[in-house]
Specification:
With about 260 residues, the chain is mainly α. The chain is built from 11 helices and no strands.
């Protein structure tokens, strides 16, 4: 598995798309710091970009790599290698390469600006951690879709729909529900609904760390009471970890049963 991980990692790091992804975040970091001259404002702006862009890139890269390397995967399957080792190795290689591009691309401009002398250093590293976790989550979801659907068009289409659902549609349905039942106490419902969307969970965590939870209104106070505590932070990180582990287990199970 380690050998397959290394191959997938180096293969993607040589890809021009990885360089484009890295250069995008590198340029974005320098531009934001040049325009804002304030690390706190730059982190808030990055939040809105990373929360949407990182899942999209992870989903597209995961599906694209799986389908493009299908012949190589079939060659590996003909060898005395566990199926789980093959697919988990490929998954980890993709996720690590995307996370590295994100961390290094944003880390260079912020370190050059003097991040270690800023009070926002913890918030910035929290943002990078959550961005990396979102990469792992959505690459795993993309791998599952590609394993279930052999048709490239169907796989790509469902991958885009999956990202669109978590990034846009879920929030719309959540807002409509809150408006329709605004006469009822929806505190527990709001907390529960957040658990089922890793993008919303990540966004709320960063917003609370940036002390701008007032933007969420009354619901923000509820989130602050729960996610703002040490237990809430630990619980939310455990939930994000489960969003990684459960799809990864599905990859292992499906790969053992799938006929290539």
């Amino acid at each position: 598995m380690i050998k397959i991980l290394k191959y997938s990692f180096y293969d993607l790091m040589r890809s021009r798309w990885s360089y484009i992804y890295f250069l995008f975040y590198l340029a974005l970091g320098f531009i934001l710091l040049f325009l804002n001259q304030d690390v706190s404002k730059a982190v808030i702006t990055l939040l809105n970009i990373i929360i949407v862009l990182t899942p999209l890139i992870g989903t597209l890269f995961g599906v694209m790599y799986f389908y493009n390397s299908k012949e190589f995967t079939e060659l590996l399957l003909a060898q005395p290698i566990k199926r789980s080792n093959i697919f988990v190795g490929q998954y980890l290689g993709i996720s690590l390469s995307l996370s590295l591009s994100l961390v290094v691309g944003l880390g260079i401009p912020f370190l050059a600006y003097g991040l270690f002398q800023s009070a926002e250093i913890f918030n910035f590293f929290s943002l990078l951690l959550i961005g990396a976790m979102l990469s792992f989550i959505f690459v795993a979801l993309a791998f599952n879709l590609a394993l279930y659907f052999d048709d490239k068009i169907k796989g790509f289409g469902l991958a885009i729909i999956t990202w669109l659902f978590f990034a846009v549609i879920y929030d719309g349905l959540f807002l409509i529900t809150m408006l329709m039942f605004d006469d009822y106490p929806l505190d527990k419902f709001a907390l529960g609904a957040t658990i089922f969307n890793p993008i919303d969970l990540s966004r709320i965590l960063i917003i609370l760390k940036l002390d701008i939870s007032a933007l969420l209104g009354y619901t923000g106070a509820v989130f602050q009471d729960f996610f703002g505590t040490s237990f809430g932070l630990f619980f939310s990180l455990v939930l994000l970890s489960l969003w990684i582990i459960l799809p990864l287990l599905l990859i292992v199970v499906k790969s053992k049963r799938k006929d290539f």
